[in-house]
Amino acid sequence: MPVPTDSVIAAVDAGQDAARRDLEALCRIPSVAFPGYDPAPVAASADAVAALLERAGLHGVRQLAADGSPPAVYGERTDAGAGAPTVLLYAHHDVQPAGPEEEWTSPPFEPTERDGRLYGRGCADDKAGVVAHASAVAAWVEAAGAPPVNVKVIIEGEEELGSPHLDAFLADHGDLLAADAVVVADLVNWRVGTPSLTYLLRGMVDVTVTVESAGHAVHSGMYGGPVPDPLTALAKLLADLTDSHGAVTIPALREGLRPPRPLEAERLAALDFDERRFRDESGLLDGVPLGGDPHLPPLQRIWMEPSLTVLGIDAPTTATASNSIQPRARAKLGLRVGPGQDARAVRDALVRHLEAQSPLGLRVSATPGAAGEPYEADVDHPAARAMLDALAEGYGTDPVLMGCGGSIPLLEPLQSRHPDATMLLVGVEDPDSRAHGIDESLHLADWHAARRSVAHLLGKIAGR
Q1: Residue stretches of the chain with pLDDT short of 70
Q2: Domains in the chain: how many in total?
Q3: 139 and 261 share a domain?
Q4: pLDDT score, position 3
Q5: Does 138 share its domain with 181?
Q6: Domain stop point among 372, 389, 422
Q7: pLDDT of the residue at 282
Q8: What is the pTM of this model?
């Protein structure tokens, strides 16, 4: 029988208000999985996601964990049978910390609409993806009784942490995630109204470095001079990791990096990068130049070059600082890893480099953290072509192929476990979403188009 896609899309559209209510309910839960935060909201978020998947018509809905990880949520519909393709839909329900709540225009965990955008922590990253997947499945169940392919849904609970329990999770539950295609709704579109299929992601590693001089703090007047300052030493250590443009210069941190292939260079040149728009989106101040190697195109710097960020520093605040020399200073570093690089090897090289330094003669120790590999997708695979067609129909305009400077730790290990699966990376965000930042928001019209696109994809994969 023909796949009733028109009636399915009508069901997606008819469910728009219900989907919005589901999204707002999820966004009211402060599901921050970071250490030091109350784990109860993460558990409540998992319960709410499980209830959402059950209402969508998924079977076998249950929460999964491994080695003490925050809960993920799983559900499936396998009505299509053993001979049909299987599509795994991925998103995550944990969110970044809100940051200073007084800087938000409206409360971060009270979703608020302004000018066609829904503001709130997690509204875009990535609870919009959770509801997009659930509502697409629900529309197929309502209009056709079941999706035309086998569908699995996995909603992770610690993606924003870098998925530190991922290896244990895949060891325990990896067979459950076997699929022919994996749709990851956690990326960004090229711009509002223009969808994208992301084929290239940087990896991400983090390292914590500590600089020590003494066993306790001392008076800066009585001891200053002969007793070196760890904060000054830490600043010197960090400054030497990049050049005057902010580009990573340590050779070991560029090991394995490959340049753009000819087709990639053509894609980079074909995209209409608008520096003024980029500056507005990022909030870059007038007169501040773009960072990174100035001889490389900005999109190459974002999508393909290593990039070092000081994520945080442990030091007295200026408000509470006393006239004393601290005994130690500590920083957490994040390094984005480009295509061709081995994230774990680069992380270990960063640790070795840091521990080989001794600014002002002080002791330096470095602790390796998470490591997520860079990822490249095959855009010529039939499932990728189906995704491009689904995006075109869902948004009413042709999508673009693009890279992303961000990282999704799940992709490389899941691909290694299921090498025949095709990863389809699509956006529910846009460049104005400010994911991870103050006043994070979701463009509602684009989100509804994304919901339609996921529903279209299930029909197109069945039809092929």
Answers
A1: 1-3
A2: 2
A3: no
A4: 59
A5: yes
A6: 372
A7: 87
A8: 0.86
- Kindly report, residue by residue over 107-155, the tens digit of the pLDDT: 999 999 999 999 999 999 999 999 999 999 999 999 999 999 999 999 9
Residue 194: beta bridge partners?
A: 191
Closest to 345 (Cα-Cα) out of 247, 240, 209, 253: 253
Burial class of residue 42 in the structure, from the number of CB atoms within 10 Å of its CB (0-12 exposed, 13-18 middle, 19+ buried): buried
290 occurs within a structural domain: no
Query: Is 159 assigned a catalytic role?
Result: yes
At 262, list the tokens: 């000819």
Which of 22, 159, 229, 389 is catalytic? The answer is 159
Task: Verify that 212 and 196 share a domain, yes or no.
Answer: no
Joined tokens for residue 424: 């389809």
Is residue 393 among the annotated active site residues? no
Strand 181-188 and strand 86-92: the pairing is parallel
Instruction: Indicate whether 167 belongs to any domain.
Output: yes
Q: CA–CA separation, 10 vs 387, rounded Å?
A: 19
The rounded distance, in Å, linking the Cα atoms of 301 and 319 is 36
Terminus-to-terminus CA distance in the chain, angstroms? 14
Alpha-carbon span 249 to 272, nearest angstrom: 29
SS3 state of residue 337: strand
* Gap between the Cα atoms of 463 and 364, Å rounded: 59
List the CATH number of the domain containing 129: 3.40.630.10
Range of the domain at 396: 5-201+374-463
Looking at 79, 94, 158, 160, which residue is catalytic?
94
CB atoms within 10 A of CB 103: 11
Residue 213: give its domain's CATH number.
Answer: 3.30.70.360
